[in-house]
Amino acid sequence: MAKRGKKYQDALKQVDITKAYAPKEALELIKKIDFAKFDATVETVFKLNVDTKQADQQLRGAVVLPNGTGKEQTVIVFAKGEKAKDAEAAGADVVGDDDLVQRIQGGWLDFDVAVATPDMMAQVGRLGRVLGPKGLMPNPKTGTVTMDVKKAVEESKAGKVTYRTDRDGNVHVPIGKVSFDADKLLGNLDVIEDTIVRSRPASVKGTYVKNVSVTSTFGPGVHVDLSQF
Asked: In Å, what is the CA distance from 198 to each residue of 56, 61, 112, 193?
């Protein structure tokens, strides 16, 4: 394990690692012990009792956080004709079709969310090796392959986040910035918790959510008391 710096060690001393904190208390502590010199991202991690080798136990989706993420999202849209006009009217940062595909093939990746209409996916599919590993590939499960590009753009701008299980059954989701007050972070965390619980695969037996923690970009994690959600 990599050696942690003094600031991290000082922050960790303020966390009772044997304790599961009430959700708001955990978030207040995360804000208190954060030592980053910028407005750090606050993230929650859910450890789930799922077997990600089973297709039906792989969680993937998207949800709009009521209090946003604190980050300005750059949204691009692959669309033609009227749908391209809809995307522009909704506030998309870049809209295009074959020209946008070629631009990305040329190495441009300065965006956070990619949306595409279904008819564009044949062309966009050529970008799979580029966008896939970065989590930027449009996908129906996250609402980014859709004819309703207006809604997709507006939701992304308003604070839509995607989630998916990693190979170890963890779900990492940003829930805001350290500058948010604890109540706003808690509101976002509640929505994530509700979404994940509602997404429980039918084939999962026994305890579904093993544990939950919250952390900031550089700070230590703080365990959250599941019974107090």
From this structure: 14, 12, 26, 9
Tokens 């074959």 — which residue? 98
3: CB partners within 8 A, 6+ apart? none
**Looking at residue 119, what DSSP letter applies?**
G
Q: What Cα–Cα distance (Å) separates residue 116 from each residue in 83, 87, 127, 137, 171? A: 10, 10, 12, 9, 25
Q: Max Cα separation, the chain? A: 58
β-partners of residue 26 are none
Helix (H, G, I), strand (E, B) or coil at 131: helix
Choose among 196, 182, 198: nearest CA to 21: 182
CA-CA distance, 58 to 220, in Å (whole number)?
Answer: 27
Whether the predicted model's global pTM rises above the 0.90 cut? no
DSSP 8-state class, residue 63: E
pLDDT tens-digit readout, 115-158: 999 999 999 999 999 999 998 999 999 999 999 999 999 999 99
Distances (CA, A) of 190 to 11, 70, 81, 219: 25, 17, 39, 21
Tell which residue, 220, 229, 226, has the closest CA to residue 14.
220
CA dihedral 191, 134, 109, 150 (to 10 degrees): -40
